[in-house]
Amino acid sequence: MSAFYAKFTQGNQKAILEKAIAKAGSERKLSELIGIPSSTIYYYKTEKVNLPLERLEKILGFLGISKTLLDYELIDPHTYHKKGGIIAFQNHQKNGSLEKVLKNAQLKASEKMRQWHSSMKINNPLEYYQIQYSRF
């Protein structure tokens, strides 16, 4: 799969997917025709994730559109996500909210562990106690 993604301005990715869905008849039919899972097509349509170039080419090939006609930014995922995380961390430091965010994450993780313990005791008690006793 291509290492790069296409980042469109708000609404353009959705418009491309809606054209492809209209041509195919439904998301499910489009999924079958171009070999992309229908749930992934939904995420692309709602612009929750950027389109990988390889999949963009499949969709544009289905539509008969050249990608040179489109205006998008190439994104390298190896640097894009890391940069976003660094920027978010720096913003929390500037705002003075870093400790609050970290404490909140710690509390959520603790609550999730409590729920896991409760669920395991009820649903899989033998496995739960074997795991617990193996740690001692």
Radius of gyration, in angstroms, nearest whole number: 22 Å
CATH class category of the largest domain: Mainly Alpha
**Mean pLDDT across all amino acids:** 89
Structural class: mainly alpha
Portion in strands:
5-15%
CATH architecture term of the largest domain? Orthogonal Bundle
Unreliable segments of 5+ consecutive residues: none
Number of helical stretches of at least 4 residues: 7
List the secondary-structure elements in sequence, H or E: EHHHEHEHHH
Q: Tell me, briefly, the overall form.
A: flat
Q: How many separate structural domains?
A: 2
At a glance:
The chain is mainly alpha-helical and 136 residues long.
Q: How would you characterize this protein structure?
A:
The chain is mainly alpha-helical and 136 residues long. The protein has 2 domains: 5-75, 434 Repressor (Amino-terminal Domain); 79-134, no CATH class. 70% of the residues lie in helices and 7% in strands. The protein has a 3-stranded antiparallel sheet with strand order 2-1-3. Helix 1 packs across helix 2 and helix 1 (12-24) packs across helix 4 (53-63). The longest helix is centred in the C-terminal third of the chain and has 26 residues, at 98-123. It is flat, with a radius of gyration of 22 Å.
